[in-house]
Every structure is written in structure tokens, then in C-alpha cells.
Design goal:
The chain is mainly alpha-helical. Helices cover 45% and strands 8% of the residues. The protein has a three-stranded mixed sheet, covered by helices on one side. Helix 2 crosses helix 10, helix 2 crosses helix 12 and helix 7 runs antiparallel to helix 11. The relative contact order is 0.17.
Length: 341
């Protein structure tokens, strides 16, 4: 009887995990707390500069910390039965955009960027694909011709926002209306490209062993969707969400001058600014490998795999999160200073 209970309990957990994997909504990079931290670091670095004046002129009363969540808030626009913003009051960080004018701006952005790409099966609107790539951890760096990279991925989306801020048109498939929309997007995408599970991914076979999808061996059945289909035991939280959340000590209100000082020491990325996103993605992949290689994966159940974290994983993860958030904030300020010196 005891063995039967254990077996039934195990089966139930696997069933729940599979269901969670099948219906989970892809998480937002860093969550609102992390994105606001990136914006707040850049705000602090730009105090008193000509660049800060330009940012204010474009964003009006918004700080970069305020602006950093806009691209995720736009995910609240429903495309069912016409375009409308249907998330009023659900996410506190979006409250500032939940005015008739603000909601109309989000709807307009989504409408223009809804069907201008080849949709992945995990998405229902093209603009949601702009937030990530899924380059395999076996790759030494980002390249546009490998599995997981796309013409509408995070590298290309960030590059498009940079070009619009420089006064150039957005390349296809992106539809960016003006400098304000470009700055709202750039502020968010710089955070996205520094979240390890928004740039790289591990691909697994049915037994839970890592496979290399390149060259030419990609099977959709091996796609872990940037960790959204990797479920932590016993609760079933997906690994991507585990990385999105930042501890309260890393929130915008807690970072303090020490974080600003650390951000000031971030070296400037060499080369033209429109080439920076690909270089940043390659650097982030280093942290993706650190995030994924130490893990143990179970066999696939339904659409998901179970994952076991090593004992010291939380310490390593939070160290990486802090480093990436600081670097993202520094680079947001650097790219804006390069555009508006």
C-alpha cells in the first residue's frame, strides 16, 4: 500500500508539472523589479547630463525606471476580437500607462507589430518575439544564422530601436512609430538582453540529455523555450521565472550609490552602437552556460522536463543577476550618451 501511494504521488506530481509546462505563459525578463532597477541605474548615471535632458524631452515626465516596463505592459493588449488593453489594474507597474492615451499607444504598437513575422507556436503576436533569442549554449557567441536566432529576436529588436533613435527607419519586420516608442522599447530590451535565459537556451532530448540543435539537427521537441519548460521540483515553478525574479535587495529603491559606482566602471563596448547588441548577447551567453550546465534534468513528461538545482545554485544565480543588472544599467546609459552626447 505504501509503495502504491508513493507511486500515485509521483505520478500526480509529474502530471501537474506537465500541465504547468503546457499552459504556462512565458515569463517577462527580470520581471518589473529587475527592469526598473536597470532603468534606475541609468537614471543615476545620467544625472546632470545633456543626455538626461534629451531623455526627458522624449519621455516627458517618465524616468527610465518608469519606462523600462512599458514593453511588457504592452503584452496586456488582447488580440482576440479586435485589439484592446485588457489588463487594467492587474499589474501595478503598468498603472502609469493605463490612461486612455497610454492604452491607445500600447494598442497601436501591438497592432503594427502583430502579424509582421513568422509566429512561433509559443506566441500569439509578433511583438512578443522581440524580447528573446534561444541560442544553444554550445555556441561560443551570438550569430544570426544559428538555431534560436531570428530576424525578429532580441538582438535585432534592440538594434532597430537604436536605429530609430539615431534618426533612421526601423528595418523590417519592426514597426516603430517614433523616438518615444523607440526609447520605451530600448530601455526594456537592454534589460532583456542581459537576462541569461532571454538570450540562450539548452535543448534536451526525451531522456533529459543535452543535444546540439546545430547544424541542421533542430527538432522542435527539444526546445525548452528559454527555460519555460524546465520545471523545478516539487512546486513546478519554471526555471525562466526563477531567473526573472530579483530579491528585494536588488530592487530600484535599494540599490544605492554603491551600485552606481560599480556601474561607472563598466567598460564601453567597442565599435558602432548598432553592433553593440550582438556583442552583448555573446557576453550574456557566458552566463547562460553558467545558469544551465550545472543542472540535472529528468525525462520529458508531457511538454516539460523536471530540473534539479545544485546546492549552491541560489548564491551563484544571485551573483550573476547582480552583475547583469549593473551591466545593463551602465550600458543603457552608455548607449543613450552615444546617441545623444
Amino acid at each position: 500500500t505504501g509503495d502504491r501511494i508513493i507511486m500515485l504521488t509521483t505520478c500526480l506530481r509529474l502530471f501537474v508539472a506537465a500541465c504547468v509546462g503546457a499552459f504556462a505563459i512565458p515569463a517577462h525578463a527580470w520581471g518589473p523589479g529587475g527592469h526598473r532597477t536597470v532603468g534606475a541605474i541609468a537614471d543615476g548615471l545620467l544625472v546632470g547630463t545633456h543626455t538626461a535632458e534629451q531623455v526627458k524631452a522624449v519621455l516627458g515626465g517618465l524616468t527610465l525606471a518608469d519606462a523600462a516596463v512599458w514593453a511588457d505592459c504592452a503584452k496586456g493588449v488582447s488580440t482576440d476580437h479586435g485589439f484592446h488593453y485588457g489588463e487594467v489594474g492587474r499589474f501595478p507597474e503598468c498603472r502609469g500607462f493605463e490612461t486612455p492615451e497610454g492604452e491607445a499607444a500600447m494598442v497601436d504598437f501591438v497592432r503594427r507589430n502583430h502579424a509582421n513575422c513568422v509566429l512561433r507556436t509559443s506566441e500569439d503576436s509578433c511583438h512578443k518575439e522581440y524580447h528573446y533569442s534561444d541560442v544553444a549554449i554550445q555556441r561560443a557567441g551570438y550569430a544570426s544564422d544559428v538555431t534560436g536566432a531570428r530576424a525578429d529576436d532580441i538582438v535585432h529588436a534592440l538594434t532597430a530601436a537604436i536605429l530609430v533613435l539615431k534618426g533612421q527607419p526601423a528595418p523590417a519586420p519592426f514597426q516603430i512609430k517614433d523616438r518615444r516608442e523607440a526609447l520605451l522599447l530600448l530601455t526594456h530590451y537592454v534589460g532583456d538582453i542581459h537576462q541569461p535565459l532571454h538570450v540562450g537556451a539548452i535543448y534536451l532530448n526525451a531522456a533529459g540529455r543535452a543535444v546540439d540543435p546545430d547544424p541542421g539537427h533542430f527538432s522542435p521537441a527539444t526546445d525548452t523555450r528559454g527555460g519555460n519548460d524546465l520545471l523545478l521540483a516539487p512546486a513546478g515553478e519554471n526555471l525562466h521565472h526563477h531567473w526573472d525574479e530579483v530579491p528585494s535587495s536588488m530592487s530600484a529603491s535599494r540599490i544605492g550609490n554603491s551600485w552606481i559606482t560599480l556601474a561607472r566602471s563598466t567598460p564601453l563596448t567597442p565599435g558602432p552602437v548598432e553592433e553593440w547588441p550582438a556583442k552583448w548577447a555573446s557576453e550574456t551567453l557566458t552566463h547562460t552556460r553558467q545558469a544551465l550546465q550545472p543542472l540535472k534534468f529528468g525525462a520529458k513528461r508531457g511538454t516539460a522536463w523536471s530540473v534539479t538545482l545544485p546546492p549552491d545554485y541560489e548564491t551563484t544565480m544571485n551573483s550573476i543577476k547582480k552583475a547583469e543588472l549593473i551591466q545593463a544599467g551602465a550600458r543603457l546609459s552608455q548607449i543613450l550618451e552615444a546617441i545623444w552626447p
